[in-house]
Input
Amino acid sequence: MTQDTPSNARPVSETIIRTLDNGWSTLLSAVHGPSGWTAFTVVSEDHPPLEMIGDAAGEAPETMVKFAGPAETWAGALELLDRFLWHVLTPVYVHPEFRQAVLAVVRERAADKNDPCAEIVEYWLPNWELKCSPSENV
Output
């Protein structure tokens, strides 16, 4: 016996890209439905490291959270992501279905000598290549 999903069930969002570094994190997620991937959204969190602000804060600073989206296409998702410096952060996870596309974008950014972040992206490129490899564990 199979169980039907109620028609009012909310679609489940899956993580596409997660980056993290020095108090910053960026998460791209999307919904995988019958017609493919849709409803791409980005959540960016900024936790200022205490060593950067010293004793001036007196207590831990608040986390700044920003949202962007939704976008209905991969190109639109990249436009959302580009509001944040996702490609210069440490890749933590890349969804297996997006690994080739993500790696192509990161390599393009690293090669773009007009991009002021190209040198940083190039520095992180080996990490992106590892996270986007077909053998990377899910």
Observations:
- The beta strands are 13-21, 24-33, 36-46, 64-71, 90-94.
- The chain has a mean pLDDT of 83.
- Residues 13-96 form one domain.
- The longest strand covers residues 36-46.
